[in-house]
TrEMBL record:
This is thermospermine synthase. It comes from Cyanidioschyzon merolae (strain NIES-3377 / 10D). It comes from the Eukaryota. Coiled coil: none annotated. InterPro entries: PABS, PABS_CS, SAM-dependent_MTases_sf, Spermi_synthase, Spermidine_synt_N, Spermidine_synt_N_sf. The lineage of its organism: Eukaryota, Rhodophyta, Bangiophyceae, Cyanidiales, Cyanidiaceae.
Amino acid sequence: MPGAQVKADLWFSEYITPFDVYQHGVRRVDVVESTAYQDLVIADIGTYGKALFLDGKLQCTSGDEALYHEPLCHVPCLLHGSPKNVLILGGGDGGAARELLKWDTIQRIDIVDIDDQVIQACKKHLSVIHHGSLHDPRVKVHATDAWAFVQKSTDQYDVILSDLTDPLEHGPSLALFTREFFLAVKGRLHHDGVFVTQAGPTSLNESPMHPRIVKTLQAVFASVYPFQAFIPSYGSPQGFAVASDKPLVVHGDAAVEAVERLITERLGEAALRTLDGISFTGLFCLPKDVREQIKREKIVYSLKQGGFAPDTLPGARANDDDDDGNDDGNDRNKAVDSSVSLNR
């Protein structure tokens, strides 16, 4: 595009790697705050609409957040079939809760997010994303640490969603991608429960994080399937992984038919923007090089063994709404520099 056609005078710079930057043109800034845990910005970035940034990293935008939240929420629910009680680790923007409430089986959703200031800002300024889900009587928000909540809780869940920031050294979510934490999460699932986590960018040029998260899950769960979705505002494919101790069917005609049937029976007229039977199975078609790297990967994240050095994680994405291992939703960020950079 010729420079003369550029409309923005204010730019938000998001550092992807030490050598790459993604700039978002800003129409209006609604919130600029420093919470007890992170720097918070809510702004209208023009092309993608309302956007949430935490510590300089884009978490979600109203324009394309469905491309993130639909796979994160509906993949595990479709594989479960009849989710009633769901735990969201993160999710303070309310996008995940909005999607889960489309299921006619849902009875309770617990959201665990340490940063209440972010939650309140999202309630006020991001209704275009949460659609009132944070006020639904079936939804309870716990402003506490994710690890502490999982360890102390005696509740069992059908589905657990992890939407936490990436496991960078000195980062808030470092311990929450370890074998030890995944074992604790497994203890909060029913015997047929399903766990899903954001799993960093699948671009191997950015980071080896995705294969390592998958390998760590494989050390805990009997069935683990990585998948990915492309969210344009992130600039690269976003990885996820779904896990359970029961067999999971994610490929072939049987999966397509089961997904189509469940969407009709359980979601009814609740609109899905991106998912149907065909696109569901397509999520699990990872590129050959990513699949091969997962097979070769040896590192399992552990509190004892570590493996989180920043030089081995050059381009991590911090995800959604908070920086204490309990952030809200969207796990996104890839970054080296956590500073917010607004440039004119």
